Amino acid sequence: TQLTMRTFHTGGVATTKLVETDIRAAMGGTVDLRDCNEVTVKNEDGHDVIVALKRNGECLVLDDRGRELEKYKVPYGAEISVPTGAKVKKGDQLVRWDPHRTPILAEKDGFVKFVDIELNETVREEDAGGGKKALVVIEHKGEKHPAFNVVDKDGHILDFHYLPAKARIEVADGQEIKAGQMLARQPRGSAGSHDITGGLPRVTEIFEARKPKDPAQMAEISGSVEIHSDKRKGKMTIRVISEGGIEKDHHVPQDRQLLVHSGDVVTAGEQLIDGPLDPHDILKIKGEEALYDYMLGEVQNVYRAQGVTINDKHIEAIMAQMLRKVKVETAGDTDLLPQEIVDKFMFRAKNSEVGDKAIISDAGETGMHVGAMVTKAEIREANAKAEAEGKSAAKAKRPRPATGRTLLLGITKASLQSESFLSGASFQETTKVLTEASLRGATDQLIGLKENVLLGHLIPAGTGFRVYQNLEVAHLAEPPVTELEDEGSMLADAVEAAEALGADRDEPTTLSIQMGEILIGESKPTVPTDSN
Description:
By secondary structure, the chain is an alpha+beta fold. The chain has a five-stranded antiparallel β-sheet with strand order 1-9-7-4-3, with no helix packed on it. A four-stranded antiparallel β-sheet has the order 6-5-2-8, with no helix packed on it. Strands 15-14-11-17 form a four-stranded antiparallel β-sheet, with no helix packed on it. The longest helix has 18 residues, at 483-500.
């Protein structure tokens, strides 16, 4: 809120993303190229250049002992300036690429065959300069999807490439091509300038856990990629085959830009097509830690662009509430129900409760019931008693814990699904929350902060925690004698001594208290005189 107010009053900082065109060595060493599938081709000027044909290639700089000093990701189609084994100095160029276009390169030698490339239907002619014409793929919806087939002399298909919208074709039908040659190129998405007023809706989108429009497809398992076409549905099937032979199909629209190609090796969670990431997919495939990192980075990027520093703990506190619910998949031997949505602490408590017990599988002669869930101490006691009486002992098995998966809820939904109906009703949809609470006979234990504020109770924070409020003090030893008690006993002893000397108890004893000290005024004792 403060950031929004400050921005509207003083104006935000317009930010633009710097365009990178190359990678330079930060340290000197030896170059090692990995998984780049590099080939040597001639560029537009006729010079021989090394081009990377893989999207997940890496360029490493090693020291004299072969230890890794730096590692960079090599973009697809980038020109590699130095080969493997070459020595580089600090600041030397390793890789460079065109920041304004993404190439589509041939991976095999052969001949180009156009598929569904029809003028004014799937492509149109544009002026390429110098009196030349070029074919550009247009956005279309229908059964036809423009593509290249790479065939051999006998017409057997060796490879194929789908053409996304706005791609500009660089080869002719029937042309002979070499591996690494550019078949088509497409413009890269331009990153426009934006300020905080455009960034705050992004923060809201993240905290509400909304699914983005046209999200990127992520690989659900690790393995090698195969791409198949299904023209009837107008989709491509990206099949990932793991080392163990497990296959997983991912169906994507044919007009989307592919980030992988047949033969590529991908890891679980890697993007297969271009587009924004879905946080629900990240949680499902990569887990909670990866989702924390992603959401934290996305939120912080918005604020850092404005020069605003926010500690990670504030964002993490919100995310912890978004990820506190668990959906039960199998109940095991707990009293939870399948598909039930419960809090994480309750889910763990139920499993912990079951973990301390055992299920009787054979009662023996102990008198226990088969199928009963009892504590391990009870089983040991019953078996010890049975063995002492010469009877057969009971046998037990370990109970099955419940299994579940963490849910990602937006902050609005997470607030409404709070265990406290008072907390939920005070936020939104008051009538709905109170009605549902009354139907299920809910009881509010007043554990959280909000419900205690509503009722004017001491809030559960600091010394207000129940642990401190319910303390009971026990005296483990005799209480020490205080100074005042010492002075009282001294006074009593002085009175007894005066009486022993013959002082009359009825005669007042003068007590004066000065500077915290008790002074006893002496009274003259009455001495009986002899009449004689």
